[in-house]
């Protein structure tokens, strides 16, 4: 008979109670997903390091690649529609393939860019003119790739027989829809695409990401929704196929662009920005930026800079960046405490591959500066932790 006052019995009882409550009886619980703040931090880092800071040439040709990938979606949609006699389920099974190419290949698609660059702008780490420049270049690249694909499909003999009739039927199905129905259908599509981006940053493995991408983009044709790059490709195909006139002869290209592509563009933008980016932005905590530091960003833009344009927030020159990399925690002569460092995946976030000096830590208003090797200065946090160095 055990003694109820025995401390060992209390320990056993505590273990049993923890097991019944669902927590591990031994060891610690390990989270297998990111919090909303951590997802937002990943998006901010990706937007700063890979998108808004990219050059015009890289953005444009990445957009062209995405537009060509959308042509694959249009090709497979038309081909399966002809092969299945426009079956509403079977004809759309391969529709997401072009979008999967884009997600896995890291291409720039306009509707995906309604989340990361906008989040960067909301945090005043990039200006509104920078966002509009980014959008314009990516959209121009998407439309260029879609136009090239439409030319190949029209004049290259890719479609033949029933596929030609199916292509005309699929492409012209949205031309008779009114402005506002097009707008709201496109807004729902924008919600889906930007939501895929958010979930992609929240997922921890490629299989989950791939499954989400497939099912989400499958909902676009199943829900009779519209995507702006697909719609633009369809309109140009109708033009090259002779169904649309350039200036006269029934329905013209201008009417197709203004009456079909434009409301889809506006709907995709509003759906992604308002229904996904703003909603997720305001459901994160106020500390989302303090724990999302990355190399070269030391301050936010002021409100006039954010609205009218200005240099990227706190971005320094290459020489300063190189000095910052030389001033790593490994070179510091004093130990530091990672008490305010958030490590959601068991490792520190880094703004650059292999850069030990870019560990993300919280900022401190009472930080001081001290000399480090190679003549650089590091701000020091309250626990003696080197944070982002200053120009020295």
Known CATH architecture of the largest domain: Up-down Bundle
The rough form would be described as globular
Q: What is the helix fraction of residues, given as a range?
A: 40-55%
Along the chain, the helix and strand elements come as HHHHHHHHHHHHHEEE
Tell how many strands the DSSP assignment holds. Answer: 3
As laid out across the biggest beta sheet, the strand order is: 1-2-3
Mean pLDDT: 76
Return the CATH topology of the largest domain. Answer: Glycerol uptake facilitator protein
Tally of helical runs: 13
What's the domain count?
2
Structural class: mainly alpha
Radius of gyration: 26 Å
Find the CATH superfamily of the largest domain.
Answer: Glycerol uptake facilitator protein
Low-confidence stretches: 291-296, 315-392
Main sheet: strands, sense, barrel? 3 strands, antiparallel
Q: Regarding CATH, which class of the largest domain? A: Mainly Alpha
Q: How would you summarize this macromolecular structure in one to three sentences?
A:
With 392 residues, the chain is mostly helical. The protein has helices at residues 7-20, 36-51, 56-83, 97-105, 116-122, 128-155, 162-172, 179-202, 206-222, 228-240, 253-282, 303-308, 318-326; strands at residues 368-371, 377-380, 386-390. The protein is globular.
Architecture blueprint of SSEs:
Layout: H1 7-20, H2 36-51, H3 56-83, H4 97-105, H5 116-122, H6 128-155, H7 162-172, H8 179-202, H9 206-222, H10 228-240, H11 253-282, H12 303-308, H13 318-326, E1 368-371, E2 377-380, E3 386-390
Antiparallel strand pairs: 1-2, 2-3
């Amino acid at each position: 008979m055990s003694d109820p006052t025995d401390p060992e019995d209390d320990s056993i009882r505590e273990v049993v109670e923890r097991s019944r409550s669902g927590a591990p009886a031994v060891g610690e619980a390990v989270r297998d997903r990111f919090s909303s703040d951590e997802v937002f931090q990943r998006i901010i880092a990706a937007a700063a390091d890979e998108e808004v800071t990219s050059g015009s040439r890289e953005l444009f040709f990445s957009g062209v690649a995405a537009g060509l990938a959308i042509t694959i979606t249009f090709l497979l949609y038309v081909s399966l529609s002809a092969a299945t006699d426009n079956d509403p389920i079977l004809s759309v099974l391969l529709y997401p393939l072009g979008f999967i190419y884009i997600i896995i290949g890291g291409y720039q698609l306009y509707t995906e860019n309604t989340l990361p660059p906008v989040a960067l702008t909301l945090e005043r780490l990039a200006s509104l003119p920078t966002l509009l420049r980014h959008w314009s270049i990516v959209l121009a690249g998407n439309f260029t790739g879609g136009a090239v694909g439409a030319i190949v499909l029209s004049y290259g003999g890719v479609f033949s027989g029933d596929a030609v009739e199916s292509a005309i039927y699929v492409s012209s199905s949205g031309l008779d829809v009114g402005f506002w129905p097009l707008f709201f259908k496109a807004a729902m599509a924008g919600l889906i695409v930007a939501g895929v981006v958010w979930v992609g940053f929240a997922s921890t493995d490629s299989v989950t990401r791939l499954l989400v991408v497939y099912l989400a983009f499958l909902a676009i044709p199943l829900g009779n929704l519209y995507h702006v790059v697909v719609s633009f490709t369809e309109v140009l195909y109708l033009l090259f196929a002779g169904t649309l006139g350039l200036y006269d002869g029934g329905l013209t290209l201008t009417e197709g662009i203004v009456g079909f592509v434009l409301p889809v563009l506006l709907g995709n933008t509003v759906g992604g920005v308002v229904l996904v980016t703003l909603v997720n932005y305001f459901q994160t905590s106020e500390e989302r930026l303090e724990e999302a530091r990355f190399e070269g960003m030391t301050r936010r833009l002021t409100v006039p800079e954010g609205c009218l344009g200005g240099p990227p927030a706190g971005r320094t020159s290459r020489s300063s960046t190189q000095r910052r990399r030389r001033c790593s925690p490994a070179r510091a002569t004093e130990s530091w405490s990672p008490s305010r460092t958030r490590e959601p995946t068991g490792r520190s976030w880094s703004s650059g591959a292999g850069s030990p000096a870019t560990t993300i830590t919280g900022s401190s208003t009472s930080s001081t500066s001290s000399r480090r090797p190679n003549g650089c200065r590091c701000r020091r946090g309250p626990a003696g932790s080197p944070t982002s160095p200053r120009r020295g």
